[in-house]
Amino acid sequence: MEKTKKFLLPENELPTKWYNIMADMPTKPMPMLHPGTRQPITAEDLYPLFAKGLADQEMNSTDAWIEIPEEVREKYKIYRPTPLVRAYNLEKALDTPAHIYFKNESVSPVGSHKLNSALAQAYYCKEAGVTNVTTETGAGQWGTAMAFASKAFGLELAVYMVKISYEQKPYRRSLMQTWGAQVIPSPSMSTKAGRKIITEHPNYQGSLGTAISEAIELAMSTPNCKYTLGSVLNHVSMHQTVIGLEAEKQMEMAGEYPDVVIGCFGGGSNFSGISFPFLRHNIKDGKKTRFISAEPASCPKLTRGVFQYDFGDEAGYTPLIPMYTLGHNFAPANIHAGGLRYHGAGTIVSQLMKDNLMEAVDIKQLDSFKAGVLFAQTEGIVPAPESAHAIAAAINEALKAKEEGTKKTILFNLSGHGLVDMTAYDQYLAGDLVNYSLTDEDIAANIAELEKIIK
Amino acid sequence: MEKTKKFLLPENELPTKWYNIMADMPTKPMPMLHPGTRQPITAEDLYPLFAKGLADQEMNSTDAWIEIPEEVREKYKIYRPTPLVRAYNLEKALDTPAHIYFKNESVSPVGSHKLNSALAQAYYCKEAGVTNVTTETGAGQWGTAMAFASKAFGLELAVYMVKISYEQKPYRRSLMQTWGAQVIPSPSMSTKAGRKIITEHPNYQGSLGTAISEAIELAMSTPNCKYTLGSVLNHVSMHQTVIGLEAEKQMEMAGEYPDVVIGCFGGGSNFSGISFPFLRHNIKDGKKTRFISAEPASCPKLTRGVFQYDFGDEAGYTPLIPMYTLGHNFAPANIHAGGLRYHGAGTIVSQLMKDNLMEAVDIKQLDSFKAGVLFAQTEGIVPAPESAHAIAAAINEALKAKEEGTKKTILFNLSGHGLVDMTAYDQYLAGDLVNYSLTDEDIAANIAELEKIIK
Questions:
Q1: Of B224, B252, B258, B362, residue with least CA distance to B304
Q2: Does B109 sit within 8 Å of A379, measured CB to CB?
Q3: Residues in contact with A343: Cβ distance below 8 Å, sequence separation at least 6, in sequence order
Q4: Alpha-carbon distance B179 to A415, whole Å?
Q5: CA quadruple B246, B250, B251, B253: dihedral positive or negative?
Q6: What domains lie within chain A, and their CATH numbers?
Q7: What is the ipTM of this complex?
Q8: Is residue A1 over pLDDT 70?
Q9: Taking the alpha carbons of A191, A196, A198, A204 in that order, is the dihedral positive or negative?
Q10: Does A422 touch chain B if contact means CB atoms closer than 8 Å?
Q11: Distance from CA of B361 to the nearest CA of A (A)
């Protein structure tokens, strides 16, 4: 009998609502605080920066289900529903009794899951009468997603791209420009924040923190302009739940239910997207699925960080966020999985971690690429260096199942492909990459400093 | 009512047979000739070079339907059936009454339709007990497809990659290496043909002709080794008919039948793949669909070439092929659609063209990129520069329908995405690209020379 490899949903099964896990959490996250007053912030505090619809979703969503606007669903249809795939060829290579499934978000035209939130954010900006939007991008995945989403909803986008990425990842820049966005290497002379840092450090290669400051400043000083952000925030994670909601139906088509759900972890949005819809059945229906976030060993906020209030950005402009963090001044090693180089985790995931509703593992850089190459050679798709962390974690679980001789159903999120990141594979194949290790002392010192800043 | 954008076939509707149009052609193509004896060549003549199953398909296929081996179908399931998509957003941008559909072959893990034949060729090599295979690649699409296909069937692959592409398209090289292939810049010191040309022209940047010679030489001098080719030949076009066979069922799901079918044209394989299954209904059932090949204005073999016997390669090693050609010594301008820079058309397409069963149009480079950018901005997918020629032709047909105020159903093949070709878009957006024009005198002179060679 022929085996089914891909489980496809028809378009009319595209989710009509996002899932807001906040409504079902046994312990709600602590509030974000205004850095000056130390009082909980409100949606109104966010209105100057974010489109109203998004600020309201961030702060005031109490319902478990939030309607997806029809215009967003129409754009989702360009690539959604995405396939759920049984990784038979990988299973065979591992000789494991485990069944491995992956949700293939790499089929989005921008190559990653980021478009799920970018389209929603562009829609709410458009709806609010906004004409111009700004954002920042590090590795470039979020910037490309916002570039296409802005074009799709008729918005003008300015992207501050970390200067070193602007130079090292020219294809990402070209993609954004092809979709009509203006891309500015950061630091730039177009903002006060940029000018200041260029003046002080003429050769500064940029950081996500600086790029955020520039994007925020431009949004605040431009009429009809709002800022957008690609991870960490609650509304971003909520938009990503279309991943897990589709996967839930598709696992049913496959006649299985996952014992383990895995996502790589940067700010948390793709992990949240694949996990939260299944996690609700742990919370509400007594299911016992394990949820594993796979973070890089060089940026181990969930496995080795602390839970406390910290800033979301390097410069300390954001509200104080209750999060697992390595300290907002933590400088992660220059690994190729640029999307995972973030010091903290969003409030929801942090609370879930604290409540033992999920787990975290760390993956070394060389192990992530080893897993990525095996996946490419068996399943065909060259994964993004970020997604390769999820694959490595899935392989570890599959090998454990083999050792224990137990059947296990593993589901991971393939958040994106690596076609625009081939330099990283080149360096790996040439033996030029290394593992970065962090001593406990390094981490403790960084956190101690943090505790002095945030009393 | 919600509109359906993507028409998806379940895996059990994957075609079980390839369509061999040769069986239904009103006039069969003239035979290929041995360059020495000028006698028709036989399958046996091809056995030293090609796996037996492929040589037999090339020369001895009389049935209209050829079974697709189950092992090939299993690998096809990694990405097939591919979606048929209604380009609503493009239609809207053009304000046309035409309905535009495209078959999305860019979802293959190698990014193009080339994998449809690569998997079949690797399978027949494996079946014949072959352990090593060789091929050449110019722009890199075919080489990447053979790299993954070889890995999928456990073969060792050596790819001769035209030296200038090897240097200018490093991502393609990386992809091949990630899938485990050995990639050699051509000309190389590993073959007599390569050594000769390097000795005579130390700075020679390579050509497809030289790379073919090297790949053939290595295959002929290595035990258990065969050569593979990505276009032009009959068996390659036949493997590509899975595209049109799926599209036929999907157009039925959409409740329409194409008035026009369009493919870009290099050697002919993707055009054949989308066209032949529909063309059979013109031949057998009196349908009146138009079939349009879109070739670059700088390499216009079908629109401005002659029909006569010519060599398939630059050096004149292949059999003499009855084809529309600009002369095997024709040097096309250095356009970015590298996959369309070929002097001739395969025997089947040439005969169909001669019999007025299809049409050809030529597209200028700047028009192809203009179409490519509009497509990216409306439908999201950045097309390969090759595929942008088909898009430009489809847009022309849609605008004609608008002018005439007629409804028209257009189907084109999106043969691949352009994510690894962003340099080309950079140059287009910067205004650095040009149109290349060919005078009638240039073409006539080249063909006159050809007629002296091949009497």
A1: B362
A2: yes
A3: A299, A301, A305, A310, A325, A326, A327, A328, A329, A330, A332
A4: 20
A5: positive
A6: 71-111+235-451 (3.40.50.1100)
A7: 0.94
A8: no
A9: negative
A10: yes
A11: 26
Residue with the bigger pLDDT between A3 and B40: it is B40
pLDDT tens digits, one per residue of B385-436: 999 999 999 999 999 999 999 999 999 999 999 999 999 999 999 999 999 9
Q: Where are the beta strands (DSSP E) in B346-408?
A: 359-363
- How buried is residue A63: exposed, middle or buried, by Cβ count under 10 Å (0-12/13-18/19+)? exposed
Q: Which one-letter amino acid corresponds to residue B195?
A: R
- Interface contact A437, partner B, CB < 8 A: no
With tokens 């899935």, the residue in question is A394
3 state SS of B418? coil
Strand partners, B311: B320
Closest to B137 measured CA to CA, from B152, B153, B157, B159: B159
d(CA B137, CA B61): 27
Distances (CA, A) of A134 to A149, A150, A164: 12, 10, 19
User: Is 70 exceeded by the pLDDT of residue A453?
Assistant: no
Q: Whole-number mean pLDDT of chain B?
A: 94
* A171 contact residues in B (CB cutoff 8 A): 171, 419-420, 422-423
Is residue B273 scored above 90 in pLDDT?
Answer: yes
User: Among B435, B426, B391, B371, which Cα is nearest to B168's?
Assistant: B426
DSSP letter, residue B407? -
Is B224:B255 a contact under the CB 8 Å cutoff?
A: no
Write down the pLDDT at residue B206. 87
| B78 part of contact set with chain A, CB < 8 Å | yes
B66 bridge partner residues: B18
Long-range interactions of A354-357: CB distance < 8 A, separation 24+? A354/A27, A354/A307, A354/A324, A355/A26, A355/A27, A357/A26, A357/A279, A357/A282, A357/A283, A357/A291
Backbone angles phi, psi at A430, to 5 degrees: -80, -5
Measuring CA to CA, which residue among A189, A123, A449, A145 is closest to residue A316?
Answer: A449
State the nearest Cα–Cα gap between A171 and chain B, in angstroms.
6
Sign of CA dihedral B147, B149, B154, B155: negative
Could you tell me which residues come within 8 angstroms of residue B431 by beta carbon, excluding any fewer than 6 positions away?
A: none
Q: Which of A235, A216, A289, A293 is nearest to A259 (CA)?
A: A289
Residues 6+ apart with CB under 8 A from B32: B40, B41, B319, B320, B321, B322, B347
Q: How far is the alpha carbon of B148 from chain A, nearest alpha carbon, in Å?
A: 7
Q: How far is CA B57 from CA A408, B19, B316, B422, in A?
A: 44, 12, 23, 37
